[in-house]
C-alpha cells in the first residue's frame, strides 16, 4: 500500500550553531556542554579506578564492571559527577539545572554499562543514556 508524501513526518535539519544552544546553554565556558574529549577522559579515569580496585578481587571482569557501576552510583548524586568527571571539569545536572537525585544515576549507569546508548548522541552531544535519565553533562 502506498503512503501519501510526508506520511512519516518530515526530516528537519538542526539549525543550532553549537551544541547546547537549543537547551539554552552557553557556547563555551562554565555551563556549556561537556565535549567528547572530556567525557572519554573521564570514562578512562573511572574505568581505570575500577580496574585497579578490582585487583583486590582477582581481576574478575564482572568485578570491574560492578565497581565501575558503584563508582557512578555513589558519586553522581553526591558530587554531581564521578571522580573522572570532576577531574576533567564536568558535572552532571538535570535539564533544569537541579540535583540529579537518586534514580537518575541508576538509569544512566545501567544504560552506560550497556555501552550502545552511550555512543549514540544527538546534536547537543547528549547520549541516549543522558536523554533517558533527563540529565546533561556540563563543564563546571
From TrEMBL:
Membrane topology designation: Multi-pass membrane protein
TM regions (residue ranges): 62-82, 102-121
Keywords on record: Cell membrane, Membrane, Transmembrane, Transmembrane helix
The RDD domain, residue ranges: 62-134
Stretches the record annotates as Disordered: 1-22
Main location: membrane
Domain of life: Bacteria
InterPro entries (alphabetical): Pra-immunoreactive (IPR051791), RDD (IPR010432), UCP021697 (IPR016795)
Subcellular location as annotated: Cell membrane
Keyword Transmembrane helix: yes
Protein name listed in UniProt: RDD family protein
Lineage summary: Bacteria, Bacillati, Actinomycetota, Actinomycetes, Micrococcales
